[in-house]
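Practice set, problem 2.
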Amino acid sequence: MRLLILGGTRFLGRALAADAVGRGWQVTAFHRGVSGAPPAGAASVRGDRTQVADLAPLTHRTWDAVVDTWDGAPHVAALAATALEPACSRYVHVSSRSVYRDLSTWGLTEQSPLTGTDGSTLGAVKAAAEQAVRDTFGDRALVARPGLILGPHEQPERLVWWLRRLARGGDVPVPGPPDLPLQYIDVRDLAGWLLDAAHAGLGGTYNVVSRPGHTTMGALLAACADATGCRARLRWVPPAAVLAAGVQPWSELPIWVPADSAVRGLHETDAERAHAAGLGCRPIAQTVAATWAWLASTPGPVPADGLGPEREAAILRGLDER
């Protein structure tokens, strides 16, 4: 397979390049060079995808598949799709489940109503990019809607946030309940499925994520404690108390979305179509262990925690006073 990755140096793009190289494919990463180099074995081409002139050299070759992880302006996705269409057999576009109109709905399927395409929200931006790719490639387009992606080289930091916090130890206020179901995809499982699908010539739209309840908040944090070898004391806080303290789910306490949230559908999506097409999801302990191993070997400053010690202390005082 001759594979072109638009990106290939960060998180999912990096996982795609590493997996494809391991399969013996001819892999080219087209990137700006601001996030390092692609994995060994992948050819590197520098350029800016927002510029037609930079995309032009890519059309002088033929590609069995292009994988595009772009999450910005829809017209940039359209630009790449239009430029590469004559040279590409299949276009794989990584979208998001934020395209659905009502994210409070449980059991969202690929046929559920979408948000508008006016670009006013992340969902609208992704929906417009999806449409641009479909308009260009038709049934040669594969649109993947993953949502929460975890694993080594994670960006933005979600699982990494919890690993760093538990590694510091002490009393850690954590949002309950422990059996709250979580739905996500390991970046390596997502990359592997996308490459399998491209090789098989798969088209259409898929929710590419674990089945609902693949793990729980309690299992996730237990795996984090085991991986880091920490002695943190998990203090489970009722959801109402967390929200009453002004804590924002997902942004300030990553991954956690309470059962009555307006976006709870992100942890309750129907993913049977992708699983029927071969998607497999490894246990949470494997994802956590691999992410901690990468994080522990990665130099660099540790960013500040979202809640900070003062807010944590206030939440713990409220818990003790109950």
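Problem 2, part (b): a different protein.
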Amino acid sequence: MMERILEKRNFHLIFSLFLALLVLLIYSNTFYASFHFDDTMHIVENYLIRDLSNFFEILRAQRGVTMLTFALNYALGGLNVVGYHVVNITIHIVNGILVYLLLYYTIRRFEGVEQWWARKIAAFTALLFAVHPVQTQAVTYIVQRMESLSSMFYLLGLLFFIKAVDAGTRTRRGLLYGGVVLAYMLGFYSKEIAVTLPAIVFLYDLCFVNRGNIKGMGQRLPLYGALTLLLIYFVVSTVVPAGGFGDLSKEAQALSYRDPSAGFGVKSIASLEYLFTQFNVLLYYIVLLLVPVNQNLDYDFPISRGLFETPVVKEGTVLNIPILPPVVSLVILLVIIGVGVYLFARGRREGSLRKLMVSFFIFWFFIILSPTSSFIPIIDVIFEHRVYLASVGFFAIFVLCMDAGFGCLAQRKESRTP
């Protein structure tokens, strides 16, 4: 029955409509959710966005692309929250469809893979991404349109690259490479988390286009050159002056804080303490994706003062797991990364789709979280919206592993049948 549905000619459209309706149903009670926290400084009290004649001034802001969408929302409905939520939910629906296409086109790159199986893996991954409770903050917290919009351009950039590789003409390939560069720019100026896109494009090229052969990537040097120049420019012109990859723009910091919210100027936490804390935060993100309970908009996450020291959890703090010394989390994370390296080597040698995909998405998870989970301090050590795009890696691996597990059970059942 499932195979018959998956093999339908118009399955892409059917699935997209189903995903959209499911997301609308899940978030149907959020359309009147009020402004909270940073919504005030970015939207409610931001008089710049109240006049579209400030178009270029808005666009020149640190996260100008997202701020421009807020200005458009204000022009259409003022401070009526419904319009803002409609846009946020629409972006999330689009991202779910883009995740589906990313998985589908990736799997179809391998010869001998049946179309229905590619659609199944892609569809279940996209559905998990779209409906998982951990996405609530990125969708319903209006100002975190920054995260979801940047993620949308990130996914579009990667999809443009995939289509460019298979383009039949030089002109079409050039236009699609231009799309990658444009998506990178729009993503970064939506939120700086898009800065890692060149690394993901390179990794995708290595894993799925050249199957581990780095020599074959030379023909795309102009694209990598353009992305590298943009990366350098973004870091020098925006990230360094702003102090890092914080969740507040430079303008918002000036309005609300005497001290920076991100960067080495943060006084409340040292670089090493932040790094040690992030070992526990990264593991906590994984646990939260696996068991999404005790979610929180504003965590009181314990700060780790030493690598081998158990952090102090304040009374009343509710977390999913006991917080252990950072060295324990570090060992677990290194094992996961080691598995990624091992699977890449095996997948390259064997031409194994499943091994290469699991390897790629392990690195995807860590690379996308690297701007906010590094040694550059940010006042808020953890936010659920930060795992929004990185979660695609977790869901893809989960679906692939579950599919493999059910496949093994089915084979054993068949072998026992007389």
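Answer key, part (b): The chain has 17 helices and no strands. The longest helix spans residues 81-107.
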